[in-house]
Amino acid sequence: xxxxxxxxxxxxxxxxxxxxxxxxxxxxxxxxxxxxxxxxxxxxxxxxxxxxxxxxxxxxxxxxxxxxxxxxxxxxxxxxxxxxxxxxxxxxxxxxxxxxxxxxxxxxxxxxxxxxxxxxxxxxxxxxxxxxxxxxxxxxxxxxxxxxxxxxxxxxxxxxxxxxxxxxxxxxxxxxxxxxxxxxxxxxxxxxxxxxxxxxxxxxxxxxxxxxx
Length: 213
Description:
about 210 residues, alpha+beta, Glutaredoxin, 2 domains, eight-stranded mixed β-sheet, transmembrane helix, transmembrane
């Protein structure tokens, strides 16, 4: 009788254990269903795999992406800016030459138009103009008037020169707009040879496949 009781009890134990294992498996599937589309989107975007030739990203890819979180930015009239403590947004970092001349002004205008055309999604993107010296009050007022959403930040000259070197591509050697992802990595570069439509298509696709923080 004892042996029969043991034999009967074993299936019962397995039955009681099954739901826990099933729950863990369901949890794995839920997590995978959330993360997998994001991973696939990034792979497709960076490599163009599985996409028609005319839908691949328009910007020049930075390989490898450049981590800018460690840079010490100083915002005009605000003070130091730590991007790791900022809201996770997509950012256009406008990197001019020694000063913001005509080419830089054109990039500012293009990025502003792209920002406007994002409509209700514009809040997920911001633009930052990088310089090395404080701006005059007249210059600040002019920029705020022309570009209400533009953040004015500074880097020390050495850091800005290093950033310029790290983000040079075969097609972008002068003033450029760097597209920085939500984690703080500059991933693509644009110059005035890129149209506003090209910038817009890239950022729209990224906003579509990334989550809002």
